[in-house]
Write a structure and sequence with these properties.
alpha/beta; globular; O-acetyl-ADP-ribose deacetylase (Regulator of RNase III); single chain; six-stranded mixed sheet; 5 helices; 176 residues; Macro_dom-like; binds ligand AR6; Macro_dom; Leucine Aminopeptidase, subunit E, domain 1; 18% strand
C-alpha cells in the first residue's frame, strides 16, 4: 500500500536476515523466555539479555529497541503484549505494541521491520482477533511513517498465516 510493502509469510522470526529490525514478543523483564523470546535470545546470544537488563521492566503496549547481537538483524524491538483478558483494554494495548514498534523503527531511520503474532502464544490472545488488531494498527500508523518501506508479518503455522492474510485483506492492506 502506498510506498510500503506488506508481506505475510510463514517462518521463524529469528531467521529473517534481509530485515533491519525484528520484533520480540517479550516479557516485562525482557528476559529470555519461550516461543519468540526464546528463539530471539537463543540466536542473539547472552549479549542481548545483558543489554536488555538496563531497559527493563516495560509496560504492556510499550516497545524498546536494542542491538541485534548475534542475530542477522541490526536491531531488535522488544514489545510487551497484553496477557489476554488480564491486561486491559487488550485490543488497545496490542495495537500500541504494533504502533510503537513501527514508530520506533521509523524514528531510527530503518526501512524494514518484521513482526511475530505478539500475544497469541503464552499470553493467550485469540489469533483471529489479534490479526485484526495488528492489521488495523498497521493501517493507521502507515501514513505517518517516513522511512519504513517493508513490513513483514512472520507466522509460525499455516493456519496462523491464513488468519493474518485474511485480516490484511479485510483491512484493505496489500499483501504478497
Ligand atoms: N517465530 C515466529 N513465531 C513464533 C516463534 C518463532 N520462532 N515461536 C513462537 N511463535 P509467544 P506471547 C509464535 O508465546 O504470546 C514468552 O515466554 C507462536 O506460535 O512467543 O506474546 C515471553 O518471555 C505465537 O503465535 O509470545 C513472554 O513471557 C506467537 O509467536 C511470553 O512468552 C507469540 O507467542 C509472551 O507471550
Amino acid at each position: 500500500m502506498n510506498r510500503i510493502l506488506i508481506e505475510c509469510v510463514q517462518g521463524d522470526i529469528a531467521h529473517q536476515p534481509d530485515i533491519d529490525v525484528i520484533v520480540n514478543a517479550a516479557n516485562a523483564r525482557l528476559l529470555p523466555g519461550s516461543g519468540v523470546a526464546g528463539a530471539i535470545h537463543g540466536a542473539a546470544g547472552p549479549g542481548l539479555a545483558e543489554e536488555c537488563r538496563a531497559l527493563a521492566p516495560i509496560e504492556p503496549g510499550q516497545a524498546v529497541m536494542t542491538g541485534g547481537h548475534g542475530l542477522p538483524n541490526d536491531h531488535v524491538i522488544h514489545c510487551l503484549g497484553p496477557v489476554y483478558g488480564v491486561d486491559q483494554p487488550s485490543g488497545q494495548l496490542l495495537a500500541d505494541c504494533f504502533r510503537h514498534a513501527l514508530q520506533l523503527a521509523d524514528q531510527a531511520g530503518l526501512e524494514s521491520i518484521a513482526f511475530p503474532a505478539v500475544s497469541t502464544g503464552v499470553f493467550g490472545y485469540p489469533l483471529t482477533e489479534a490479526a485484526a488488531v495488528a492489521a488495523g494498527a498497521i493501517r493507521e500508523t502507515m501514513p505517518t511513517l517516513e522511512h519504513i518501506r517493508r513490513i513483514r508479518l512472520v507466522l509460525f503455522t499455516a493456519e496462523d498465516l491464513a488468519a493474518f492474510r485474511a485480516a490484511l485483506q479485510d483491512s484493505g492492506l496489500a499483501q504478497s
